[in-house]
Amino acid sequence: MWKQVILIAMLAIALGPRHTALAADPGDSGGAQKPHRVVMHLNSGEEKVQRGALNNIRHLYQEVGRERLQLELVAHGAGLSLLMKSTTTLGPELAQLKADYGVNYTACSNTMKAMKVTREDLIGEVGDTVPAMVRLMERQEQGWAYIKP
After folding, report:
1. In this structure, how many other beta carbons lie within 10 angstroms of the beta carbon of residue 139?
2. DSSP letters of 108-122?
3. DSSP structural state of residue 84
4. pLDDT for 1
5. Which of 29, 49, 51, 113 has CA 20 to 30 A from 92's CA?
6. Using CA of residue 22, residue 25, residue 31, residue 35, what is the dihedral sign?
7. Cβ neighbours of residue 90 under 8 Å, at least 6 residues apart?
């Protein structure tokens, strides 16, 4: 028994700290940090909730950094009002987040049809117009983290 303990101790000493550190963290890729991908789901027409979502986005980028975060905000239902020219009160904030961090905005095409909203009714920062539930499902299947403020 003691022979085995001594053998293991000697092996650990012989391998040195580099090998034991690698064994302790097999996911470490030599300092390279994996980028984060986040899909944020917004279906509230309340300005307080919408403003909170934009604050969450800003704080994520400030903490993680633009080079390590890709974020898409998917709006549907009452949340579509955030992306409509005629109803949004947060247009300047949306434009600033797009300019500063490259945030992607997606509007739900099903909600647009139901509300008779056209692409021209949306702010210029909106990228895709696709069914929100499909986009949220696809992003999660692709490994994106899901956040709902």
Report:
1. 20
2. EHHHHHHHT--GGGB
3. B
4. 56
5. 113
6. positive
7. 47, 50, 51, 54, 82
Count CA atoms within 13 Å of residue 129 on its CB side: 18
Distance CA 66, CA 62 (A): 8
25-48 per-position pLDDT tens digit: 444 444 457 899 999 999 999 999
CA distance 42 to 88: 14
Torsion of CA 40, 34, 137, 89, to 10 degrees: 20
Whether the CB-CB separation of 84 and 140 falls below 8 Å is answered with: no
Say which residue the tokens 């021209």 belong to.
120
Buried-exposed string 19-45: b where 16+ CB fall within 10 A, e elsewhere: eeeeeeeeeeeeeeeeeeebbbbbbbe
Query: What's the whole-model pTM score?
Result: 0.78
